[in-house]
Amino acid sequence: MATIERASTHHFEEHEELFIDTNVWIFDSDASGNPRQKKLYSQVLNNIRNSNCRVCVDNLVISEFVNQYSRLRARKLGVSRNDFKVFRDSKDFLPIAEDVAKRAKEILEMAELIESGLATQDVVSILDDYAKGGADFNDQSFVETCKREGFKFLTDDGDFANAGIPILTENPRLLGSG
Question: Which of 93, 108, 162, 173 has the fewest C-beta atoms under 10 angstroms from its C-beta?
Fold first, then answer.
């Protein structure tokens, strides 16, 4: 049976294997604008570092992080969603690009980059679920990766309540469902 557990009180152990969702890395940065979540997830990540457990991400997580983080940083400078691509091509974007790359590399210092397994996942089934609405393609891929590898999933995304995998979170909606 899948469990949903509070991440901040979980005792991480060296033998555990975790897959960490993009939103946790975003909350750990200053870009989210949510100091409560930053404090919670930064402490959880420190606990994980101290435990020496195996931490993994895939290219989808890194891609989501790069895109989300750069857009959040640009938005803080007043760049609208519609103007982002023009801004990204300007010299004013360079400091953000450097920071994004630096932070993504910091993720890769803590986490092992693994194959997403997307080529071997049942992509047609994932697309069929997506076509029904209410399902995110990348999220479904993360679930499949966790099932295949036996990972616990650290996330703040409330969409994973019925994912059927072990979840660690600080999301009250998820904690209320477990």
Answer: 162
Do the Cβ atoms of 34 and 27 come closer than 8 Å?
yes
At 30 the pLDDT is: 77
Task: Count the domains in the chain.
Answer: 1
Q: What is the CATH number of the domain that holds 127?
A: 3.40.50.1010
- SS3 string, 136-154, reads CHHHHHHHHHHHHHCCEEE
Across-strand partners of 58? Answer: 114
Write out pLDDT tens, residues 15-34.
999 999 999 999 998 777 78
Q: In which band, very low, low, confident or very high, does the pLDDT at 108 lie, cut at 50, 70 and 90?
A: very high
Q: What is the pLDDT of residues 38-53, one digit of tens each?
A: 999 999 999 999 999 9
Those residues whose C-beta lies under 8 Å from the C-beta of residue 13, and which sit 6 or more positions away, are 51, 53
Full residue range of the structural domain in which residue 143 is found: 4-177
Residues ≥6 apart with Cβ < 8 Å to 99: 73
* Residue 157: how many other CB atoms lie within 10 Å: 20
Residues 6+ apart with CB under 8 A from 27: 34, 37, 38, 40, 41, 42, 156
